[in-house]
Fold this protein.
Amino acid sequence: MKRFIIISLLCVLAMPMMACLWWDTTNSYLFSMYEQKNFKNRVERICNDNWKAYLGSTEEYFWFNADDAIKAARKKGDVLMVSYLQNLKKYLNCVDIEQRKQYEWNYPTPQDINAQKRDLQTVRTYAIGKTKTKLRSQHALLYMRCNMILGRHQDNINFWEQTASKFIETVYKDMMKNIYAGALYKSGRTAEAGEMFAEMDDYESLMTIYYKKRSFQAISQQYQQNPNAKVLPFLLQDFVNNAQEAEDAKTEGALGGKLFIRDINQQESAQMQQFCQKVVREGKTETPIMWQSAKAWLEYLAGKKQEALKDINTAMQMEGTQRMKDNARVLKFFMTTATAKPSDSFDTYFTEELTWMQSKQQTADGFFDSALRRISYQAIVPHYQNKPEQQLALMIITNNTDYIERMETMPVADLEKFFYYTKTPGDKPFDQFLQRQFQINDSSYIELIGTKYMRLAKWDKAIEWLSKLPLTYFNYHHSQEYLYYSTARKYDVEPWITRQWLDSSNAYKREQKWNKNIKLEFCKEMQTMESSLNLLQDKALDQRYYDLAVRYAQASLKGDCWWLLRSSKNIYDSVRVNEIDFGAKAAELLQKTTMTKDKNLKLKAMFAMGWQELYNATPGAKLWTSNEWNEQAADYIRQYNRESWQFRAFQNLYNMVENMTNKPAYITKCDEYDQFRQYYSKHK
């Protein structure tokens, strides 16, 4: 069913558009004093369930279609339902026209508007005449909907108060009450409308009413009128969350997507803190915990952390709903974790609170899940920064998605310690608690540790770890594309001469499998080649340098054999902390090779040093030429980076081969070097 036919058009036609947030934010709002039940979602779900039952539909994702419903009603011989649906369809067409009035580019014609008025009058007359049938609630709702679009708000007020309010409790009566509240608002009875929308959990309509009244002054005025107004939790929560948003934006940027944000400055926040204190002191409110918690959180956001802790502890002893008490406990958990010094006593407190938070997860509105996410990122991770094993365990337990990046970039020794930490029974109750909370895939960790040693070129340690893995692990753990690339490409092929291009669609044409542990074989080969360097000399040593450079280049992030160090490839990959730059290592070995007396090998090495992929994964490295943004020209300008490694490599190659009569084919066929030659010959 169309979402807009279910409830009042009030919020649909009155509000500005909001940005869309397509990712799961980690800076969720922590001040949430009431469960977000959402009136619109509830009534839409019930209505859809009613139609599914009538139509005998078993579709999980049901979408109301008037024509399908009319056919089903006719098949049942349900004459009254047929007439109701035919008129409902007319009303839906009128709603479409009403919505088009919001968009200048699609504004309805005068003929459309006149037809809309005629149809609404016709449907309205029909509906009021059917309010004594077995479908009286549905027809009464249809009547009020027509009045709503026609602007006959007083008619809706009268009809609700004299007739519809006496109907039996159904979802249709709930929707009529919602339209009645909208009519009160349109008639200037804002306070009454706000109370009703608050009772119904219609937050969008509340936002419509109070969109320009979300301030300290508006909240204080509302409190003076009624200290226990049902709209106050909505207004106070909106204010506090906007204050949090203003503070978050200072460090995280304005990501957008949260509902109707307004900036709360420090002065207004301080006024609200004082006002909250006044409300609690006066004793007129039935929920002092809400006001005391608001004061505490605003203080914390303003940097007054000790005052905030004192006030949130006081709040924990005050009266309020269970949700308010739970919210105060969440706020205290965040503040305490973010400010406490590491200790066994804190770990005991933390264990109790985390266990409680986990028991509250997956509630209807998801507040505790999102709150734990913020606590994890902003409090737990910093608190345990000097205890990497416990920190990583807690990141996994709290579903902190940064744990994957953390494992990839942390020192391999720390990851080793974490692996053994998961296998060794903890001495302390806190460690025992953590170890009960999660399990790891041993083989995945073993491969990652071995691979991280590969990234450091510590072949003996990499062999130690990778040799523990059975071949079946690689064949079942990795994707078909990974297995395809790793079986089809060879790491001893010179990448600057031959690129091993592959079509990834072929990965799924047949089953891909390893018949040997290729990563382990690579490590053993590299260990043997490097360990015997001191036994070689002259041309043999130069050739060994070159052969090692080939393998380092292939295994680098931009090489054809990237799969040796990564499980997948990304064009934005760059060398990370706690790993060596394989491209730079290859360039270093090629530089040594250029010292050879073998002219052919020397030429190959010099040419290889101009291969741009040696530098593309190095942060800050530049190629011999690049397009740089120029503010004055307001455009990209071609720059020539004469200090770059690649420029110097091509410069040396040019000096060596320019006067040669028979240049090797790998040089004459290289487009990039040819571009350099054309530039450099004119700009030496």
About this structure: The chain is about 60% helix and 0% strand. Confidence is low (pLDDT under 50) at residues 1-23, 254-259. The first strand starts at residue 625 and ends at 630.
